UniProtKB/TrEMBL annotation, chains A, B, C, D:
Protein name: L-rhamnose isomerase/sugar isomerase
PANTHER family to which the protein is assigned, alphabetical: L-RHAMNOSE ISOMERASE (PTHR30268:SF0)
Gene3D superfamilies: Divalent-metal-dependent TIM barrel enzymes (3.20.20.150)
A Pfam family matched in the record: RhaA
UniProt key word Ribosomal protein: no
GO-annotated molecular function: L-rhamnose isomerase activity; metal ion binding
Key words, A-Z: Cytoplasm, Isomerase, Manganese, Metal-binding, Rhamnose metabolism
Amino acid sequence: MSLQEVLSELDGFTVEVPSWAYGNSGTRFKVFTTPGTPRDPFEKIADAARVHALTGLAPRVSLHIPWDRVEDFGALSAHAEEHGVGIGAINSNLFQDDDYKLGSLTHADPAVRAKAVAHHLDCVAVMAETGSTDLKLWLPDGTNYAGQDSLRARQDRLAASLAEIYAALGPEQRLLLEYKFFEPYFYAMDVPDWGTALLHCQALGERAQVVLDTGHHAPGTNIEFIVMQLLRAGRLGAFDFNSRFYADDDLIVGSADPFQLFRIMVEIVAVDAHRPGSGVNFMLDQCHNIEDKIAGQVRSVLNVEQALAKALLVDTEALTAAQDAGDVIGAHDVLMDAFHTDVRGPLADRREARGLPRDPMAAYRASGYAAEIAAARVGGTQAGWL
Amino acid sequence: MSLQEVLSELDGFTVEVPSWAYGNSGTRFKVFTTPGTPRDPFEKIADAARVHALTGLAPRVSLHIPWDRVEDFGALSAHAEEHGVGIGAINSNLFQDDDYKLGSLTHADPAVRAKAVAHHLDCVAVMAETGSTDLKLWLPDGTNYAGQDSLRARQDRLAASLAEIYAALGPEQRLLLEYKFFEPYFYAMDVPDWGTALLHCQALGERAQVVLDTGHHAPGTNIEFIVMQLLRAGRLGAFDFNSRFYADDDLIVGSADPFQLFRIMVEIVAVDAHRPGSGVNFMLDQCHNIEDKIAGQVRSVLNVEQALAKALLVDTEALTAAQDAGDVIGAHDVLMDAFHTDVRGPLADRREARGLPRDPMAAYRASGYAAEIAAARVGGTQAGWL
Amino acid sequence: MSLQEVLSELDGFTVEVPSWAYGNSGTRFKVFTTPGTPRDPFEKIADAARVHALTGLAPRVSLHIPWDRVEDFGALSAHAEEHGVGIGAINSNLFQDDDYKLGSLTHADPAVRAKAVAHHLDCVAVMAETGSTDLKLWLPDGTNYAGQDSLRARQDRLAASLAEIYAALGPEQRLLLEYKFFEPYFYAMDVPDWGTALLHCQALGERAQVVLDTGHHAPGTNIEFIVMQLLRAGRLGAFDFNSRFYADDDLIVGSADPFQLFRIMVEIVAVDAHRPGSGVNFMLDQCHNIEDKIAGQVRSVLNVEQALAKALLVDTEALTAAQDAGDVIGAHDVLMDAFHTDVRGPLADRREARGLPRDPMAAYRASGYAAEIAAARVGGTQAGWL
Amino acid sequence: MSLQEVLSELDGFTVEVPSWAYGNSGTRFKVFTTPGTPRDPFEKIADAARVHALTGLAPRVSLHIPWDRVEDFGALSAHAEEHGVGIGAINSNLFQDDDYKLGSLTHADPAVRAKAVAHHLDCVAVMAETGSTDLKLWLPDGTNYAGQDSLRARQDRLAASLAEIYAALGPEQRLLLEYKFFEPYFYAMDVPDWGTALLHCQALGERAQVVLDTGHHAPGTNIEFIVMQLLRAGRLGAFDFNSRFYADDDLIVGSADPFQLFRIMVEIVAVDAHRPGSGVNFMLDQCHNIEDKIAGQVRSVLNVEQALAKALLVDTEALTAAQDAGDVIGAHDVLMDAFHTDVRGPLADRREARGLPRDPMAAYRASGYAAEIAAARVGGTQAGWL
């Protein structure tokens, strides 16, 4: 693909940003705060909109319920629209209620399960109010000790709970089910891998799709293989992008292994899944524990775009020829040629041509926005995970 | 379950041993040889029969084609029968032909794929001659470098190849498909995880089942969870038991983490899958690189039996009560009570009552069999992986 | 060693419990609370004393500063003594001050480093007041992004900071330096492995020793090897015992891999390091996120004692004979014989003979203590990590 | 550093290539052969010289004894010189003798240890004949089963064996000791980590240095941290470069994680260790199981050079300023700027200016050398690991 074609392929590509990335986050050891952190969903959306204004890449914001619960979601949607962005997926929360200590949708007690299901019906109501089509469900349930509960019974309960939730969705709405290897439980997670997520989605129906969070795998897992496999099975609903070295580190996507991000985008491009209408929602799910949050989001969406541009640059004809010829190094080199190409200049040119800053990071620093919100957002309680 | 009930539950339980465990094996660095190593399938079966004679646990021997190809499989079956054992699963080999350097059932060249498919039709013919009902297929295919080949195209070719093989099976025969995380390829294996194996089995039909090799997972993977999940999906066809600390170490099952083996058997017992007729074939797949091979096999089948006995000992009533009460430590302790119980005495008593040695390891050492075969098996070429 | 000798070897063996295990803990997602959780160090010590009363194994309590700061440490020591226990190691805290966002003893800003050093001088003062001889320092410092800071400069600053702290210790006091693979930082920890801890201890002097937390290693790490190596180098100062499946899960020691705990104790016993005066402080460092905290501690110290008893049971003469003969399976079997032996009965007998409950877990449940503290400890703020 | 300065810093930089990379290698499952594979050390050196002729980067060849034993090492040296290269490190072999099944320098039997020590004295003799100054010792010893041997006794024997070897070295000669996490043994390697290697080097003396093989670590290990730490301790003697996804995959360096290779070179550059005289020997240790071997080596040395050039490009002034200011993303971005820069053009220009091919990979393909050696090297036994 020529550079010009590559750049035009980027036109419809967008990244959805999470409202919670603008709030405080941390580890179990400490949550550091920063001046200017949003106090409510309106301020989070204002920050997210700034990311879009700087990059042209991030027109949607995921909400998290109950963190982003407001009295009037219509007002929130309007606020978003005014700021140039829209509401994206609705994320449920199954990890912060005292009742969920031993499970939520999998809990042995039917009353707890009913409560967890009801929470999702609330989320579906929010979807109606915001026009959101994606209900994203990460199941944090699991156990810490062998024997603590029946692994199998929990699957059965989960299947029944999910069926109730799925039944509440409209025909244009999807259930996005996310798996995670470990944390917050350490012996067994109830949806630990893509195979488990897939089995549940298969049981539910076609509008149940799998979410791949790039930080939710065992060490050494080939993530682009799973991307390919879920696409092949027609079940890749969304990404939660981030970076990791060890566990679910939730670092800026592309910061730990930019080559892996590129390889993932190569599998995306192979079936045109980067194009609007592919059904794959490219989302971030990150924690800016120690770095500036807005800058961190800007850097993240730029990293995704850069990886996509490089993936589009791969000379697929030469690649296929080398592959068919069994030329191992030759085929690998075709891929690496694209990866080693510096696309930052053309991407800056493209931004400029679209009326965006050539260097969004510098533009953000120069904008004074950080100082502005630090001065304005005094008092109140900063938003965070808890 | 009372100890008496536990012991009676063991009656139908068997472990299938692999013919190749009696031959030489090693690492890429060195294959050490030992006096007395079998030179042909007849001698392997004689050794395997000795394991059964000592333990009463191992009445079947898996064959590997072409390693165990003989002119007259009827004679081999008769030889086995004379020695008190039978022929079990037929294992194909897709990793030792020069044509398979870049793949076998997934190869870009249709001629190579056809050759690999034809090899399985040969295996099906062997099944007819030996009465075997299980065709076990471990796909060693994969790639070493990103870009080397299309991950997706390889899946498509694999699906087509598997369909041809599956079509050749009789109505009483099964295809057992084994996944592996890595090795002998290091960038991407073509069937790296249970999810991929499951998707292929689903596409093939009900007699396609997954093989779980306990050494074929990413670090930290909860294997008993996968056992439960495959059982729940009706797709657990067989185990390849062994132990690992790091990779596919192929050590004696139960030697690296006896508690894990116990937890696996707990999931088996939960649905009575240890009983004959469950459809789960409990097989060993091990390499005795430095230890005595026959002793290693005796130790292995004893370890599996011990883990099963402990799993049967779990006080399921107390366990369920503690689980339902949300008593985390209480439930865990019920499980641990069974694990900490020393069942070696009762198992020895049971062996004695069945006319078997109380201590099969000591009986083997005392038997002089090792010296006998070392003296007898002089000359010829020792059997091995290559 | 005869069972009688084994039991007598247990006499001087003790486990130190951490005050913070009795407070609330959790993950970054949620800290669940429980009725009866201590509100202050006095109540924590009361709970810890209960563990000792039930087991006879846990006569010392580690303190954590500032969590356990009280106005009058003499009063706290007296309170401990009244309850039958004493004060153990003093643990510093370098992860909860806003100034430490980018580092403490390694921070680029000398003022922050000075503050962190001064905190340790405070801890040394507490040691004087409590009679504690061990200053335990876990360095949580690290970076999240490549380039964020100079890895090398941080080592240099750390070395200088540690030298100041070490200089403040009295001749009978030790600095115990703990390493950790990852968390709370995800690109590079500043003391990530035993090699780094050892280099710093060597630079400091003989009273600087390494702390091995069983949850602070890369996947697959052979921990008993490190135990052996640090003992051989004369630098194993202490354990922080717990269990893990994935990361620093901080589960009940012995719950995830009882065989590993046994192997660790085998290395301990090999050089009599279980005996008082060996200089190895056997401590717990655990989080009882979802289980009863006191019961969790009771279970933990019992698990350590059980592993030690089994390690003492190893027939070392037979083991050495098999090892010298190159009898791989024979030597392994000698070890496994000890592991498979059920020592719970003799340990219960021993407890009974010492005036302790045969079954401390049952005795704790029967005691009504949980209900008692739940009723008594109403109001106030429950102690926790934060 | 300006691009011009960067390019001039490359002038003295060299990579040492291993003779064995030109022979056949494989996995335990299969060693694939290729036409043209060298049959003896002379042909290996001819191939290695071709890599140097194409790249100007690889003027030395490591030998492996006994694989590269010849009657007249003077003739081999002269042959190398004629081809424009020299002899580098001498590598010993402790993994292919039947006597070493249970250990070599650590073996319980003094006769086996003496044999292994004597082999190193032979290697020292080869060093005298070839002018080599580096004796590289990778200890493959280890155990497969807990209890198989005493971990501690093996350390003691190893220390004594190493002392004998070290004593045989001349004042200008070094002992380079390499550690490895696992393989070919699976329970415990006797030198599994850099801490163990360091302790032995410290005990031996200043000319004992550690070898860091990039494939010999636990999953997730931060390798550049170890590079920094060994440099800081004055003990980094050499690299064995390669790439890995899972275990010791021995893939082309830079193919699995080019960003990691860059980060390693950043630590090298920080103390000018890329310059001649630093004492760090940059070696490859790879296996070209399925790809063209010579092309694989060319690609490898180019990848190392590219990573070094990028590391030199880092704007250290800006980096330090951002680090000192606590600007997390800013500092990270400075590093990433260098990584994202495409240096292939300037490196090609530099090659051209030095009379080398702009594109060594294409030049190799165009040279017809592969066909030439395939035609010439008919008959005889291809060199390989075994």
